[in-house]
Amino acid sequence: MAEKKTFEERIARLNEIIAKIEGEVLPLEQSLALYEEGQTLIKELQTELKEAEIKIEEIAGNNKD
Predict the structure, then answer these.
(1) Collapsing DSSP states into helix, strand and coil, what is residue 37?
(2) pLDDT per residue over 8-63, tens digit each?
(3) How far apart are CA 64 and CA 62, in angstroms?
(4) What are the Cα distances from residue 19, in Å, to 22, 23, 28, 38, 48?
(5) For residue 63, what pLDDT is reported?
(6) Pick from 39, 56, 40, 41: nearest CA to 6
(7) Which pLDDT score, from 0 to 100, does residue 9 have?
(8) Which residues contact 14 (CB under 8 A, 6 or more apart)?
(9) Which member of 9, 14, 44, 59 has the greatest number of CB atoms within 10 A?
(10) CA 51 to each of CA 12, 44, 46, 54, 63: distance values in angstroms, whole numbers, following the listed order
(11) Which residues contact 19 (CB under 8 A, 6 or more apart)?
């Protein structure tokens, strides 16, 4: 099984996808595959950011005492 990429690696991959879609004329099938990969990355990144936000709120709440 492949190792899960870091947050930063997934951001870099998302930027690569965006640049490729914006900068090239690609076959429809390749464009759709890249779009789908990008959407998956976005969902993963949003989830990870939300989890980090919750953790920060918990830590901040614990420090109010």
Answers:
(1) helix
(2) 999 999 999 999 999 989 999 999 999 999 999 999 999 999 999 999 999 998 87
(3) 6
(4) 5, 6, 16, 11, 23
(5) 75
(6) 41
(7) 97
(8) 38, 41, 42, 45
(9) 14
(10) 20, 11, 9, 5, 19
(11) none
